[in-house]
Amino acid sequence: MTHQKSDQWTSRLGFILSSAGAAVGLGAIWKFPYMTGMNGGGAFFFLFILFTVLIGLPILIAEFIIGRGSQREAVSAYQFLAPKSGWTIIGRWGVVGCFLLMSFYCVVGGWVLIYSILSIVGLVIQDQANYQQLFATVSENPFITLLGLAGFLVINIIVISFGIKRGIEKSTKVLMPLLFIFFIIIVFRSVTFEGAMEGIKFFLQPDFSQITREGILYALGQSFFSLAVGFSTMVTYSSYLGKDVSLPMSAASVSLMNIVISLLAGLAIFPVVFSFGLTPAEGPGLLFMVLPEAFGQMPFGEVFLSLFLLLFLFAIMTSSFSMLEIITSAFTANQKNSRTKVASIAGVVIFFAGIPAALSSSYMSHIKIFGLTVFDATDFLVSNILLPGGCLLIALFIGFKMDKALMKKEFYYSNNLPAGMFPIWLQIMRWIVPVTIIIVFLGSLGIL
Predict the structure, then answer these.
(1) What is the C-alpha to C-alpha distance for residues 322 and 237, in angstroms, rounded to an integer?
(2) pLDDT at residue 184 tops 90
(3) Contacts of 58 (CB under 8 A, 6+ apart)
(4) Those residues with Cβ within 8 angstroms of residue 330's Cβ, 6 or more apart along the chain or in another chain
(5) Residue 139 to residue 121: CA distance in whole angstroms
(6) Where are the annotated coiled coils located (predicted)?
(7) Contact at 8 Å (CB) between 190 and 196?
(8) Whole-prediction pTM
């Protein structure tokens, strides 16, 4: 028997926008442009779309089915669907993964928070401003970085304390559409710069000679990262969902919104990169150097930049909400602990865990793990090992363990999809998804 949750999404739109918000965040807006820049441009974008549609979307449907089929958060869902078995590790894998992800994700969230405050007081866009130097100051000053990290986590704790309806859904419904509108305005300005066409070609014209084995793994990892699959965050989100919503159609909507936002992010960034002679492979700081440069050339640029940074900040938060939610719900499932208490404790622990990543550009820059800073090493571990690993486990669970009748029922609720769609999806989850993940992973290690 499943049980009905007291706190639920009030509408399909609220669920889709919140799920898209969980997916969009840093993955599409911050990480996608610089990963694309570092891995050959258009060819990386092509692989990213391919992996999102063929691998990421089926896994997203799977997480939705596991969540609503059990009506439980990530850890309890696997315990309920496969009691007294080793499959329960998948939920715990997700909680640990989200914890590690937040330890560097919230550092970037802190940077955006600081940039937002600086832009509001007019300190970002200035005549003859050196945007590379400004980013270095924000990311390398230990006090500023840790202050941003703490502030970002406090906002997360407050929203998660309010729950699904009054916290996550209410805020997402307003700000996600605004993010789309602002992106379109920025793209329109970006593509009109002199020399912008070189950036558009770099982004949209695939050159497959630029793709490496490692680049293929990054494209796969990016598709998982930007769809928020692999750590069962979407299991937790869909556990709050009623039966009147089509899971495959909702997953398709989230995937499409994610691809569109990634496209807009690329069109906002790369034309400006080439117009101003910057390097597309600049790395994590790319967004913070390019956008102020672009806004600085616009009338009322300071106002537009402030508004965009605030919306971008929210887009990041909608992703971090989903991560803090999976941690919080895992420890409040027994109803004995309050959301506020658990979210606050989790926030404090994440703050201390995030200190090494926050100080990777300053006091701890000399500490290297396999040649990477703590920040980059944590990012690599999460994006290219733990996320694909989590997706592999979910695919095997769906393909060979979960009750087929329950899956089929959840798949066809509230839609008119053809009868043959479920068997096709199941075979994709059973064979294509695991085999692809294993081949890409082994290929990146040079084994294949």
Answers:
(1) 8
(2) no
(3) 425, 428, 429, 433
(4) 73, 74, 75, 76, 91, 95
(5) 19
(6) none
(7) yes
(8) 0.88
Q: What is the structure's pLDDT at 324?
A: 83
What are the DSSP calls for 7-59, one per residue?
S--S-HHHHHHHHHHHHHHHIIIIIHHHHHHHTTTHHHHHHHHHHIIIIIHHH
- Has residue 164 been placed in a domain? yes
More confident residue, 202 or 189: 202
The answer as to whether 6 is a domain residue is no
Residue-wise pLDDT for 320-334, tens only, equals: 877 887 788 878 776
Q: Is residue 267 part of a domain?
A: yes
Does 7 map to a domain? no
In DSSP notation, 198-235 reads HHHHHHHS--GGG--HHHHHHHHHHHHHHHT-SSSHHH
How many CA atoms lie less than 13 Å away from 433 in the CB half-sphere? Answer: 34
Q: Domain span at residue 243?
A: 12-444
Nearest in space to 318 (alpha carbons), one of 147, 178, 136, 119: 178
Q: Which two tokens stand for residue 407?
A: 């899956």
